Amino acid sequence: MSNNGFQVVDLGIKVTPQTLIEAVQKEKPDMIGLSGLLVKSAQQMVLTAQDLQKANISVPILVGGAALSRKFTKMKISPHYDGPVLYAKDAMDGLSLANELKSESSSISNKTKKRRASGTFQGKKKESSRKLS
């Protein structure tokens, strides 16, 4: 992401929701990136979304990784978060979504509308871009 013009704050692996919340409050990111390679990490994303919601955080969340699917994102993560939850099938898709968020500060592009209709873009709100992971 940093090679493509994004400022990245990498919090590392096995980051607790509280640590993420504190970083979001400090850094004020335009988006949050979460990656999960294990089923356990996918389940943790649900809890993280709930905790972010309780903390009144609603910046877009980009999720991806081997443990996730579009259906899981739509059915399990998105219902627990008022902000957008976007599923990226791979790194290039994540970059594309991040660029869409960056370029569309007040409205959703046609491509993103199609993603929302197909379940790739989940959420109610959208903002511009900077990644926090």
From TrEMBL:
UniProt GO MF annotations: cobalamin binding; metal ion binding; methionine synthase activity
Swiss-Prot/TrEMBL keywords: Cobalt, Metal-binding
Cellular component terms (Gene Ontology): cytosol
Record's keyword annotation contains Membrane: no
One Gene Ontology biological process: homocysteine metabolic process
TM region(s), chain numbering: none
Coiled-coil stretches noted in the UniProt entry, renumbered to this chain: none
Annotated ranges, domain B12-binding: 1-112
Residue ranges, annotated region (Disordered): 101-133
Record's keyword annotation contains Transcription regulation: no
Protein origin, superkingdom: Bacteria
Basic and acidic residues composition bias: residue spans: 124-133
Any matching Pfam family: B12-binding
PANTHER family for this protein: METHIONINE SYNTHASE
Protein name, entry field: B12-binding domain-containing protein
